[in-house]
Structures are given as structure tokens and as C-alpha cells.
Specification:
Layout: H1 3-24, H2 28-31, E1 39-42, E2 51-59, E3 66-72, H3 83-91, E4 95-101, H4 108-125, E5 137-147, H5 149-161, E6 167-171, E7 187-192, H6 204-210, E8 217-222, H7 246-260, H8 268-272, H9 277-280, E9 283-289
Parallel strand pairs: 3-4, 3-5, 5-6, 6-7, 7-8
Antiparallel strand pairs: 1-2, 2-4, 8-9
């Protein structure tokens, strides 16, 4: 075999081994960075009445089937404000639908309906003849997420539809007087210490306290964080998202979904294990039960 061909094959093998090792690395740091998969997306699917439009992101080069995640934006927001979640989660191996509500001012209960309709769309995409993701989405592995009123919608939807879901992640949720004791799936609440729109003392904290002690649950509060800690930076100075903590909240969300939606116990330590000092210093509060 000529030397150059042998060297090329050796290089390809080395790169392949490196890529496989990178894909298997499990740490909060690695999960907070873009994952090992290439991300593709599309927005053509059979329309539903509960929301106006959506984008479906997916891991284009993932050979195995993957779970589905639906994400709702907050009050007066669009799916653009959730777009980084679509690319981040898809790069770690999930199909992700980010939606536009029918009306920018839709209340949390209406957003809950939109989220469950989005779960239906993802399930249908796995069965739709000629669909991009036909046969790819694991229809029994679904989770919901949302920001602000979308976070309130996430809690409402999980409260009434836990049997159809594997996990819920509301971030800086807005929903006054919520009792979510009927939620029976693992729930991660992400909050901002200095949230002036959905103050944690009136929203995220009592939401967490209302959750049953019989489910895995976590309350992660970002030190100095505002209402937009988990939003995409769309260039609007009014929103000032804390994008410097995207690695923190994104990494925990990926670990949560891998553990409780994919059922991969290799991620348990990334969720409940000791938190690095550098991350702990960015939190004002962390409570959980596993």
C-alpha cells in the first residue's frame, strides 16, 4: 500500500476514534457546548390549529432514533427567541420543535394546548409518509419546555398530560397561583435570581414547592439572572439575555433530558453529582430531590 494512502487511512481512523470519544464524553462542561451532531431543520409539516408556525430541528447525522422536545416562547415572543435551544438540543441528539403561538399575547393555558399539539406534530412526523423524519422520532419519548408564559404553559401541560410525557423544563416560568402537584414526570425549573417580570418568590419558587416529592425535581436559580437567562440574543436591548450562562442552563437541560427522556443512567452524575465550583458560584440556589 502506498505510504500516502496508508497515512490517509490512519488519519481517517484517528479522526473517527476522536469523534466517537467526543460523542461519548459526559460532563456538564461538554453538555453545555454544541454536541457532536450536525443540525438540520425544516418548517414544512401538516398545520395544526393550536399554533401558527414552527421549526423542527434534528440531528442530521445521528444514526439512531431520537426523542422529541417541544418548546413554547414567552409573552409577545416568537420562536426566534427559542432558536438557540433548537440548535443546542438537536446537536446533542434530539428532535426539537420551536413554535410560534397563534397570538403573541396567548395566556399560559393556551400555550399548554400549543405544546401538546406540538408533541402531536412530532409524533406525526415520525409516521408521515414522505416526511423528513419518518421512522426517526421515538414517539414514546417526549418532553416539553418553555419560557415565561411558555414556562407556565409547560407546567400546566405537564400537570394534565404527564402520561404522554417523560420530562418538563420550564424556565423563568410565569403562572400566578399555580398548583402543579399532579405532575408525575421529572421536572427541572430554571429561574433567575433578579427576575423582575416573574419574580421567583411569586412564580418559580412556589411552582417548585407545589411539585410532588415523589418525582425527581430540581430548582436551579442563576445568581443575578434576569427573566431572559435562557433566551436567544436577538439584538433587542430591552431583553438583555444572560447568554453567558447558556452553557450552564443548556448543559443541565441536556443532562436532564438524556437521563429522564432517553433513560440513560450514564447522565445521572451530570444531573445530581457534585457541581464544579465555577458553576456553583453562578447559582444563587440549587434544590433537588432524585
Amino acid at each position: 500500500m502506498p505510504i500516502r494512502i496508508r497515512q490517509l487511512l490512519t488519519l481517517i481512523l484517528a479522526l473517527s476514534l476522536w469523534a466517537n470519544a467526543a460523542a461519548q464524553e459526559i460532563s456538564r462542561e461538554s453538555l453545555g457546548r454544541p454536541g457532536p451532531y450536525q443540525v438540520a431543520y425544516y418548517s414544512s409539516y401538516p398545520a395544526v390549529a393550536e399554533f401558527s408556525a414552527a421549526t423542527i430541528y434534528f440531528p442530521a447525522n445521528k444514526g439512531q432514533d431520537f426523542a422529541g422536545i417541544a418548546i413554547a416562547p414567552g409573552f409577545t415572543e416568537t420562536q426566534e427567541h427559542m432558536s438557540w435551544w433548537g440548535t443546542h438540543l438537536a446537536s446533542h441528539g434530539f428532535a426539537v420543535l420551536t413554535l410560534d403561538t397563534n397570538e403573541l399575547r396567548d395566556d399560559p393555558s393556551t400555550r399548554a394546548d400549543a405544546l401538546m399539539a406540538a408533541i402531536g406534530v412530532l409524533r406525526n412526523e415520525s409516521e408521515r409518509m414522505g416526511g423528513t423524519l419518518r421512522g426517526k422520532i421515538l414517539t414514546d419519548r417526549m418532553a416539553i419546555m418553555g419560557h415565561s408564559m411558555g414556562g407556565g404553559g409547560t407546567l400546566i401541560a405537564a400537570n394534565g398530560n404527564s402520561a404522554e410525557l417523560k420530562a418538563a423544563i420550564p424556565f423563568t416560568p410565569w403562572q400566578p397561583d399555580g398548583d402543579f402537584s399532579e405532575i408525575s414526570i421529572p421536572t427541572l425549573i430554571i429561574a433567575g435570581e433578579n427576575d423582575r417580570i416573574a419574580a421567583v418568590a411569586e412564580h418559580a419558587a412556589p411552582h417548585f414547592e407545589s411539585l410532588s416529592s415523589d418525582i425527581p425535581k430540581m430548582y436551579l436559580e442563576v445568581k443575578g439572572g434576569n427573566h431572559f437567562i435562557a433566551n436567544t440574543d436577538v439584538g433587542d436591548a430591552r431583553l438583555t439575555p444572560n447568554i453567558d450562562v447558556h452553557d450552564l442552563v443548556g448543559g443541565m437541560a441536556v443532562a436532564w433530558l438524556k437521563l429522564f427522556v432517553d433513560g440513560d443512567e450514564n447522565y445521572r452524575d451530570a444531573v445530581f453529582g457534585e457541581i464544579p465550583v465555577s458553576d456553583r458560584e453562578r447559582l444563587s440556589k440549587l434544590e433537588f430531590s432524585d
